[in-house]
TrEMBL record:
Gene3D superfamilies: Leucine Dehydrogenase, chain A, domain 1, NAD(P)-binding Rossmann-like Domain. The record marks D145 as: Important for catalysis. This is Glutamate dehydrogenase. Pfam families: ELFV_dehydrog, ELFV_dehydrog_N. InterPro entries: Aminoacid_DH-like_N_sf, Glu/Leu/Phe/Val/Trp_DH, Glu/Leu/Phe/Val/Trp_DH_C, Glu/Leu/Phe/Val/Trp_DH_dimer, Glu_DH, NAD(P)-bd_dom_sf, NAD_bind_Glu_DH. Residues 182-414 form the Glutamate/phenylalanine/leucine/valine/L-tryptophan dehydrogenase C-terminal domain. Keywords: NAD, Nucleotide-binding, Oxidoreductase. Signal peptide: none annotated. Belongs to the Glu/Leu/Phe/Val dehydrogenases family. The keyword Protease does not apply. It comes from the Bacteria. NAD(+) binds at T189, N219. GO terms for biological process: L-glutamate catabolic process.
Amino acid sequence: MSEVSLLDHALVRLDEAAKHLNVDADVIEKLKFARETTKARLMIRMDDGSRKSFLAWRCRYDDTRGPTKGGIRFHPESTADEVEMLAFWMTFKCAVMNLPYGGGKGAVQVDPRKLSKAELERLSRAYIQAFARIIGPDRDIPAPDVYTNSMIMGWMADEYAQIVGQASPGVITGKPLALGGSLGRGDATARGGFYLVRHLAEELGLKGSLRIAVQGFGNAGQHIARLLASDGHKIVAVSDSEGAVRAAGGLDLDRLFVAKDAGRSVVTTAGQGGHELLDGAALVGVDCDILVPSALENMIRIDNADLVKARIVLELANGPVTAEADAILEKKGVVVLPDILANAGGVTVSYFEWVQNRQGYYWPIEEIHERLRTIMEREGRAIWDVAKAKDVSVRTAAYVHALARLAEAIEAHGTQNYFAS
Ligand code: NAD
């Protein structure tokens, strides 16, 4: 008996979107499978002199709309199936935002916390040695993902430059600023979500000062809290992997940032500034207007979706709401702003980085913000209109919107009807 893969689960969204569009069968046939997934074994020298090997993959899911784009994650549970699912999501996310990219993803099956810094550098360089023939500024452009960061991207870009014999900053995005990174990349994911909510506030029935709960207080979670608070809203609860704190009158964000900067959990602020301790699992049920999942996948599931009291869920994390939970939330009238739109600010500013690298001219921060806002508002509005016109969820509308663009590109090469007539 064959098991249902993660990619099969993701493909349900494709089938759902296809019901609302008149796309050629060729389009579905093309988007059902990854174009290429390459596997390698990375062999590195450990600090104690021994050799150790790690499994690694790079998937280029679909490149009809341009070079493939997607992060590289370092995680002990990464698999080829997960990489293909994430690359499928990237294909749709880039099409949602009308970026001239297809979708890709990469991973190394490793727990990076068990490596020394020097071992981590050797592993990052080994990844590029293995996949240099696959990636390239016009072919496949990696970026950071779970447990990879700008320093790792800097090592990888340097390794690629050594292999091809010339500087090629456009091969990787999310680089340090000094090595061709872009201003505004740090808070781009949260900022995109923030612009989206602000633009659709009236349609979403959001007025005045709102109460926000943030699940996961890392990069995306901290930035969205800061942006929404500076717009006059109250952050009433936040969580991280160790638990949660809440304050009905609003949490003291500076206190939380100090704790996180010092490597401490948000729970260490309990008892100060009116912060009360809360069980981490209870965060999804906090009384609030907007719930912002910004931690991991599958956090809102069949067993806790009914607890959600928020009217809006802003998915900054990838895949935080399962398909079963989606149905429950829809029945409750909760509007979910889906990941492939809500967190696409990150890949959009990555695209800006690539454009700046290619032209060799770098934009000021105001220009980055303005360009990001324009794209978020344009695509957010278009998707909202599709949702209303077709009477579907915003998630289905986002997939329909992306599929229409992918279909147009695939069909432009000729379809079954064209060749048969
Ligand atoms: P991060 O590692 O900086 O933060 C993740 C946070 O989640 C940490 O505070 C961690 O303690 C917390 N966490 C882990 N398990 C938890 C649990 N069970 N309950 C509550 N909190 C928990 O990661 P990030 O870059 O902020 O990314 C978060 C999510 O956003 C991921 O799904 C990522 O794929 C997605 N995302 C991030 C970006 C980006 O640019 N950073 C772009 C697109 C999507």
